[in-house]
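Hello Y.,

Per our agreement to keep a running log of every chain we model this quarter, I'm adding this entry. I've kept the format consistent with earlier entries: sequence first, then predicted structure.
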Amino acid sequence: MSSSDRVSRGASVQVSASILGCDLGRAASEAQRAVKAGAGMIHADVMDGHFVPNISFGPDLIARVAAVVEVPVSVHLMVERPERLLQAFLDTGADRFIVHPEATPNVRRAIDLIVEAQASPGICLNPGTPVSFAEALLDHVDEVLIMTVNPGWGGQAMLPEQLNKVRELREMIEAGEIHDMDLSVDGGIGPATAREARLAGANILVAGTALFGAPDPAETVRQMLG
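Predicted structure for the entry above:
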């Protein structure tokens, strides 16, 4: 089974646990805890200090997480020129790799490298990026991730106007009869905002602080799934 085969595309709504919101010194066990609470995926934000101001972690940590969970692991590369760094992350055992069209003039090359590695490709749009950046790529990816905060730091409040992009993309996906496409949101997503995101058309809800900081993560997942 290839990595891309493990990802259940376009399926029912699920929570993806962002390890940026956990104790990174215990990332593997924290990821296991999130899965036990009901998270259907693990989300790993890689930041290079250039494309976004923060620096997070590298492939070694992701490999440790991927080795101990049975759910798909999605790597969000918030880095400049991701095609230059992809190989190190493709070797981690993760399943999906999400790149930014804003970060490279060769986004199709990055997508092709992911596909050649038998992994699942996705793209992400920052708050200031119009939906038109994704339109020409919809036939080439399995997921479009909409940032609902300005990227770089966890724990921010959701920018509700970004859900208009989710609605617009959901309409494009349905009008184009594009099957098995995931539409995800990341940033300020928790029990108080998940319903609005679901109604807008998102089927993957990325949650970090809201999940790992909750006294009862399983209850948080249940609330987010409605």
